[in-house]
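QA checklist item 7 of 12: single-chain prediction sanity check.
[x] sequence parsed
[x] length recorded as 482
[x] structure emitted
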Amino acid sequence: MAIALLILIIVLVFVAGFLLWKSRDSWQWFHITASAITFLLSIIFLFPTAETLKSRTAWNRVKEELEVRLARIEIEQATLKYGDPTDPVGGRGVLDMQSELQGYALDAGRRWPNLRMQSNNGGSIVLASVAPQQELPPGVEPAAADAQPAAAAAGAQTLIPQDMVVYGFAETPQPGITVPVPTFFLGEFRVTASAASQVTLTATGTLTGPQQQAITSGQAQSWSLYELLPLDGHAPFIAIGSEPADDALFGRVDEELVKRLLASGVSQTTIDDYLRDGARSKQDDPPATRWVKVEFVKPHSIVVDSTEKRDVLDGGFFDPAGQAVDSRLQRGEDGAVKFKTGTQIIVKEEAADELIDLGVAKLVDTYFVRPLNDYRFILRRIRLRLAELAIRKQELEYEQQVLNDAIAATVAMLAANQETKLKLEQDVAKIEVERNAIAQYSEEVKDQVAETRQRLIGIYRSNVDLETQLQEIHLGIENSLP
């Protein structure tokens, strides 16, 4: 192609020269000179023009590729931001995740991670903030709670408001996670002193043995402090990317995560409840864990707004019938939720039975739903239970001491009685010997008495015979006298 172009240029040069030579008679010298210069310049500028066209073609190709990439990136950005509705697994976007993250942050309240324990003197624990500065993507602002160390470094007077009650957790690194994760509850504390980069805590109650050991032994070096206790939920134990299904109400439970978090100090029954969360229920499941999916066979409405007029602080957000009192929770309009035919909902078993008995819904499936834990109530109950157990322990120790004293007295009494028994046995043996001797002597005396009696009887009879003879002699003498 280049050779052909070169040949064409050479031919054009010869043709131009021939035409100029032919025009020598009719043109003046300046015409011929201007034409020659113009022709030579056109040939000279032909090469930069070609180079420019070539560069322009390349840049057009780059522009088209960049436009395609821009369109693809815009689609990807929109998908990342708003999610992909056609993807049943990973269809959530950044906005959905950010909203969910804000919900978790709202439930957790303010938090202060990456606090290092400096000292532990007489129950006063001193923690210092050493949170590193993390690089965030452009356009992403740090959360208010996570920006707390930065605010302290920027000149804040206190790290945590004084006299605030906070909840401490020990942080440990986890595989696949860049930041330490709270894994062990250290107790409830009150902030007694606070500076820009450190805080002093004291326990609000008696800590348990494992908590005291974790603090005093130095195992809990990295702390996280929370304004509120975390709320229990079903979603944190679901595997990443898992979606609800007919046999898994919340999605597939991450078995490895559950077993790792509940590895120690948890009964197998509790672990099984976490693993079965959202699965189909069994016949022997407690009523409190049974939730039912029902499908409406005819239109139905349920009144959810209460007609009671009162302040939330006077009796809570709901009335005794379970209807919303607070205007922020009320549905408005007619105050009822309407269901169309074919709509499926999941409710507790007693509510499902009521709808089925009314003939407006039919049973679809039954699920096992783990009852959520209220950690604030559980911790208070555990604390009261520990206090009761401590009192009971003292009572049992006192009873044990009394029982030990009684046992010691009984043993001493048994030893004394044993000695008395031995002496009595010896006395009994002696008495038995004496009794046998007495019995033998009695037999001998009886024999002697019997023999003496026989002799006395013989003597008595002899005396009677002698008395009879004397009387006969006496009568004979009397008769012989005149």
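[x] summary fact logged: Residues 133-155 have pLDDT under 50 and may be disordered.
[ ] second reviewer sign-off
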